[in-house]
UniProtKB/TrEMBL annotation:
Organism of derivation: Danaus chrysippus (African queen)
Matches recorded under Pfam families: adh_short
Transmembrane segment boundaries: 12-34
Protein name: (African queen) hypothetical protein
Family of the protein in this entry: Belongs to the short-chain dehydrogenases/reductases (SDR) family.
Domain of life: Eukaryota
Length: 313
């Protein structure tokens, strides 16, 4: 190194650090998405005969219910529409030859938990998917949210209270048996700038923190806890109908996310979403004002279009 000047030495150290960062990131991605899922395969059925999924009659929840049924679990479907529950249960029984049980519950009501607890008291639930969640009808400024009190209460009850209370109902059995899987569906909106989705993103930040603590407390008791933070997925909530690389079908999304159970406890669940959030957060750390301007502009556009549509209707 003696023949190099200070600037050249600095350049060499910088290149070594950059190379280390790139290699570490590539190894991390390879382990998370390829090697991990091959070596850490979780046999869900061996965790307990039943899997319970909240918000399971559509979108991501229904895809989890079907995926777990395809892996041999009997399924408890908890959702708010009786007809959709019956239809989903019949579909799953026919397609996967497993048993199902339905529990009719509206998670915007905080008084449902004693009833749910009784309905599932006799079941050995090895997998719990806390999927139910509600968002804004369209992006909106905090003070302008329509029907403010009702919508905010619903969001907090469905997104925060449900995850906490369902875990309290199901996890004691898991701890007793020394095994089980808890999957909590958060949202990427809690890890990127999310103006005009402030309350929704905040409820999902709770889901992430709750999962982190739960994992620290109960992994040593044999419980696997995973928090999934998706980007856009085709569903009623996102309003996206046609799948693309960045907005996969719920089925494709769940196939990917579920393969990461046992490998990673905090994940977007889907590699293109990881890349997307990485790019957004990199822009945000280089030019925070620009990124906030860009996201706000895009949210305001969506809001404008939605308001126009609602006015027409
Ligand atoms: N889709 C995305 O782009 C996206 C992105 C990030 C995170 N997420 C999260 O992923 C989860 C699932 O979202 P999704 O897009 O699959 O939603 P979705 O297609 O709207 O499906 C939601 C499911 O939950 C049920 N549900 C809604 N409100 C309920 C309530 N109050 N009580 C009981 N059940 C209720 C629905 O039943 P009904 O059919 O009867 O309404 C349906 O089965 C949510 O936690 C969401 O925050 C979604």
């Amino acid at each position: 190194m003696a023949q190099f000047g200070y600037l050249e030495k600095f350049g060499i150290v910088f290149l070594i650090a950059l190379l280390y960062y790139v290699v570490k990131s590539v190894v991390n991605v390879l382990y998370t998405y390829i090697i991990g899922p091959l070596v850490n395969k979780v046999d869900f059925k061996s965790q307990g005969r039943w899997a319970l999924v909240t918000g399971s009659t559509d979108g991501i929840g229904k895809a989890y219910a079907r995926e777990l049924a395809s892996r041999g679990c009997d399924i408890v479907l908890v959702s708010r529409s009786y007809d959709k529950l019956m239809e989903t249960a019949a579909e799953i029984e026919k397609d996967f030859k497993v048993e199902t049980r339905i529990v009719l519950a509206d998670f915007s009501d905080a008084d449902i938990y004693e009833m749910i607890s009784k309905e599932v008291a006799d079941l050995e639930i090895g997998t719990l998917v806390n999927n139910v969640g509600v968002s804004y009808k369209y992006p909106e400024y905090f003070l302008e949210i329509a029907d403010w009190e009702k919508n905010i209460n619903t969001m907090i009850k469905a997104n925060v209270v449900s995850v906490t209370r369902m875990t309290r109902i199901v996890m004691p059995g898991m701890v007793e048996r020394g095994k089980g899987v808890v999957i909590n569906i958060g949202s990427g909106s809690s890890i990127i700038p999310s103006p005009l989705l402030t309350v929704y993103a905040s409820t999902k930040a709770y889901v992430e923190k709750f999962s982190e603590g739960l994992e620290m407390e109960y992994s040593k008791r044999g419980i696997i806890v995973q928090c999934v933070l998706p980007g856009f997925v085709c569903s009623n909530m996102s309003g996206i109908r046609r799948s693309t690389l960045i907005a996969p079908t719920a089925k494709a999304f769940v196939k990917s996310a579920i393969s990461l159970v046992g490998t990673t406890s905090n994940t977007t669940g889907y590699f293109p979403h990881t890349l997307f959030f990485y790019v957004v957060n990199s822009i945000h750390s280089f030019a925070p004002r620009f990124s906030v301007w860009l996201v706000t502009r895009s949210m305001e556009n969506t809001r404008r279009k939605a308001l126009k549509k609602y006015k027409k209707e």
